Batch of 2 targets.
Target 1
Amino acid sequence: MRKISLTGIKPTGAPHIGNYFGMYKPAIALTDTYLGMYFVADLHALTTTPTPQELQTLIYEVAASWIALGLDVDKAIFFRQSAIPEIPQCTWLLSCVTPKGLMNRAHAYKAQVEKNIELGRDPDDGVNMGLYNYPVLMAADILLYDSDVVPVGQDQKQHIEITRDIAENFNRIYGQTLKLPEGIIPEDVQAVPGIDGRKMSKSYNNTLPIFAPEKALRKQVMRIVTDSKTPEEPKDPDSDNLYQIYRLFAPTERLQEVRNLYLQGGLAYGALKQELAELMLATFAEPRRKYTELIDDHAYLDAIMAAGAEKARAIAQPVLARMRKAVGLDR
Ligand code: TRP
């Protein structure tokens, strides 16, 4: 059987080029060698209690994005986490071998507690059990399908380590049952800077969204922050975030030319921004067309995800059966 590469995507809204280079592109490339499993982590999304309407919108945005960006839904298994009833059961079995202290050390929870303490609030203010148990649910996502590899961003590294810890606990207590997954974590691509030079992130409001209307996208590109050097002055491409973004899209030869213009003088930031906008629109022309076509076709997206869920459950069920037997629920 082909090895499984699995990843979950929390539906958090419009994907940007940081997501594309950091996650979508490498994850989609893995479907050449692995059986790719991709799911919309809609249960994880509930930890921040979006409104029902928000959640619905976010789910279809993610689904349309993956398919528009080139995920081959015949080759890969694409589904919604909440369509797998084996997941909550697996989560419980894993919870019972997860030390509470391990969860106390999880970054997202810890950050919230530290923020509360800093503000003089109760340490657990605003912390729901969904946030606290988040890593166990994620471990279930991964372990339930005997996943071999999990492509994720640097920010998810701790969650993979926690997953392995939980699997090891289970195996130690109940005997060899669960497969230990490996994270595939890109070291360099997470360096996509935002328009203000910090890491590109929705929470910094500094993204270049892939599927924004053309006018909005152009406007956002023009907002990329640079220094105030005149075109004639020589500049350092490696410390300029416009160049760092531009290099992701430019053809090799043109990139070399532009690099020389930076170093020798003669580069106007405004003109380069316009060129970048054109390059981005050209690069994503087909995905943008497809996205527009898909985003309102809920029936189609639902059908794709339902078919994926069926395949995912077929992989999950024997693993859950193994777990149930291991703990003594079944003989
Ligand atoms: N926590 C991941 C994120 O925020 C999403 C996720 C949920 C996930 N379950 C997963 C990623 C399983 C990989 C594997 O991006």
Target 2
Amino acid sequence: MSKKPVRVVVTGAAGQIGYSLLFRIASGEVFGADTPVELSLLELPPAIKAAEGTAMELEDCGFPTLSKINISDTAETAFEGVNWALLVGSKPRGPGMERNDLIRDNGPIFVTQGKALNRAASDVRIVVVGNPCNTNALIALHNCREVPATRFSAMTMLDENRAKALIAKKAEIGVGAIRNLAIWGNHSSTMYPDFEHATAGEKSVEAAVGGRAWLEGDFMVAVQKRGAAIIAARGKSSAASAASACIDHVKRFMTKTPSGEWFSAAVPSDGNSYGVPAGLMFSFPIRSHGDGKYEVVQGVNLSAYARKKIDETTKELLEEREVVRQLLLR
Ligand code: NAD
Ligand code: LMR
């Protein structure tokens, strides 16, 4: 393998999502069969033993791409020289909770980790999965002044995948035929899955599912509350699908987005896009240039219906920002 190794840290490596995520990264699926992967596993001290067990299993897979595994309970050590930081480690919600009920417990984790990234890594891209992921990403970037804010994103790819799957099932077509399904705003029950601009093969989604009533009704609620439905059914939050979405997120940022297409991710708002105030971590339709740069797709025509939904999710993100104001440094 001739390429330079890529270093990836997964926080919460012994958790549910970590257990699904690490193997797929190690397998070469994300960075390619010719790129060695050095994994760094960050865990809390009581879970280090479990992380060691996961590392044994990673070795036992015999992936030719996996060149090194480090395990640490110290963020600065785990983040040393990483190129990708997948920030998963944090508390999941339980039944009856909203994701932002986790802010007070999980927010401080991203202060510590933002500061540690600031000291330990420079050529790094950060993906926040731990909930509430938009606001946790905001906290991390505010505490990491040396890394450009545009290197931080939060994951709404799971919501995009869920929305596409629901539409494909209703329209009785393959999920691969659904394109340009943007999630706007917060990874929460106020998110807006934009069915108005998505397509199903050659058709609009509205035509493919037989009208708008289902999209505004059952579909909207199902996407917004899918995480809660999984917790109610499994007794634990989504894990394999979350890990899969994280893989999709990284791949979509690494690959040039085909012309006319977009994907969803929460990125820092520039204040000039769709009336969203500057600085919020807001999920937009995104196009990657494939060279580490990306853009928020401009010119998406928003209906009055979409505008109302986007305003609602914006309001929630502004409220979350107020709750964590004292954790924001820059
Ligand atoms: P889990 O409880 O199974 O695992 C979390 C792990 O993180 C634990 O092993 C814990 O020891 C570790 N951890 C906690 N604090 C840490 C810290 N400061 N540093 C390092 N490790 C730490 O939880 P999970 O199911 O893997 O979920 C993790 C997070 O991801 C939760 O906040 C969950 O809500 C969120 N999530 C987000 C999405 C999304 O779409 N954005 C989807 C699913 C889950
Ligand atoms: C999800 O969407 O499945 C995750 O954010 C976990 C949760 O709490 O819903």
